């Protein structure tokens, strides 16, 4: 990343890339990561913080392995957004903005994800799901839990 920044004509254009790289490494954009990224970019931590808090997909606090971005665009609102959020919250036992105790899921609202023709919709790990029903949500959550369990089992076997 440092090489890309040095070679860039306008290094500040890479600020989002730097934030994404730091977030991918730490799981979220920690205060230390924010300061390091700002120094790397020749920016103040406040400048990078302002940029970080602008984007829905930059996390300034720890999040779950799977971040569920529930679309709260107008079309999703008209087609059942509220019932999607309620079902997710009940099923996972957390509110919007919270992470499940096992660290698997975080529910966050997000602006329109462009899946209006299949609304209501949500994004998890850059994959869109819709149109959502309680059954489809349960199916997605079950599959993700199974994937996490398989990954954990594989890690235990490696030890």
What does this entry look like structurally?
The chain is of the alpha+beta class and 159 residues long. It has helices spanning 2-7, 15-26, 31-41, 45-54, 74-78, 81-92, 134-158; strands at residues 66-71, 105-110, 122-124, 127-129. It is 51% helix and 11% strand. The protein has a four-stranded mixed β-sheet with strand order 2-1-3-4, covered by helices on one side. α2 (15-26) packs antiparallel against α3 and α3 crosses α4. It is globular, with a radius of gyration of 18 Å. It starts with a helix and ends with a helix. The relative contact order is 0.11.
CATH structural class of the largest domain: Alpha Beta
Structural class assignment = alpha+beta
End-to-end distance: 32 Å
Largest sheet: 4 strands, mixed
Shape: globular
What key attributes describe this structure?
single chain, 159 residues, alpha+beta, Glutaredoxin, 4-stranded mixed sheet
């Amino acid at each position: 990343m440092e090489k890309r920044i040095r070679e860039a004509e306008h290094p500040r254009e890479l600020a989002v890339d730097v934030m994404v790289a730091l977030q991918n490494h730490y799981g979220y954009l920690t205060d230390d990561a924010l300061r390091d990224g700002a120094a790397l970019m020749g920016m103040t931590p406040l400048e990078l913080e302002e940029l970080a808090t602008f984007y829905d997909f930059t996390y300034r606090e720890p999040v779950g392995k799977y971040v569920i971005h529930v679309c709260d665009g107008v079309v999703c609102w008209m087609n059942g957004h509220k019932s999607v959020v309620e079902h997710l919250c009940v099923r996972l036992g957390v509110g919007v903005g919270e992470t499940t105790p096992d660290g698997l899921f975080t529910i966050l609202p997000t602006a329109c994800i462009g899946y209006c023709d299949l609304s209501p919709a949500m994004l998890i790990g850059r994959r869109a799901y819709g149109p959502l029903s309680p059954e489809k949500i349960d199916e997605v959550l079950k599959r993700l839990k199974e994937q996490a369990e398989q990954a954990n089992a594989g890690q235990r076997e490696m030890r």
